[in-house]
Amino acid sequence: MTTHEDITDRARNEKKIAFLAQHDLLTGLANRAVFSEKIEKAVRRLQRHGTKFTMLMLDLDKFRMINDTLGHRLLIEVVRRLRSLLRDTDVLARLGGDEFAIIQENETNQREGAIGLALRIIDLIEQPFDLYGQRVVVGTSIGIASAPEHGADTETLLQKTDLALYAAKSRGRNDFHIFQSHLSEAADLQKSTESELLDAILRNQFELHYQPILKP
Predict the structure, then answer these.
(1) What is the pLDDT of residues 6-21, one digit of tens each?
(2) Quick one: DSSP state of residue 53?
(3) Of these residues, 24, 59, 98, 175, which one is catalytic?
């Protein structure tokens, strides 16, 4: 007796599960895990062939002011615009929320290429969006770090690109910032201060003094 099993649906479901494990459900972009793998592959190309690359991390300014319905649609439209600016060799991922990341490789001048891309992104994203008949305007802040100049491993590059992004947002948003060493120094100082304050609290090393207010 011969039996046959139609595995078409199972294969389709397995393929769908594999896709969802590697991609963002809303936008279809690579997710954070896949992006980390892409960085590791870029690092290996750097080590073997000297192929330099740049990471750009960006998020949207004023995104929290947009309601959930428009927010989801806005993210889809932002991705459409970003894709229009990128080459097939560039990697675009959604890290979560309104945060995206790009790997840019094989530029004649990595610094100039990253700056040029950042300026094009800022210019395109700040153009008004028409979402369900509503006019929505946002901006974008971008942090930039390059390998091997700013690091040659995934964790370091992500950290330094994130610090550069924070610096861009601190300067007034809708701007880009390239990582500089003083950003790490400032971050280390903040962590050290926070640690010392927490330790002092646990050791009851603070004394509370009241400043009297004297009225004339």
Answers:
(1) 566 666 665 555 556 7
(2) E
(3) 98
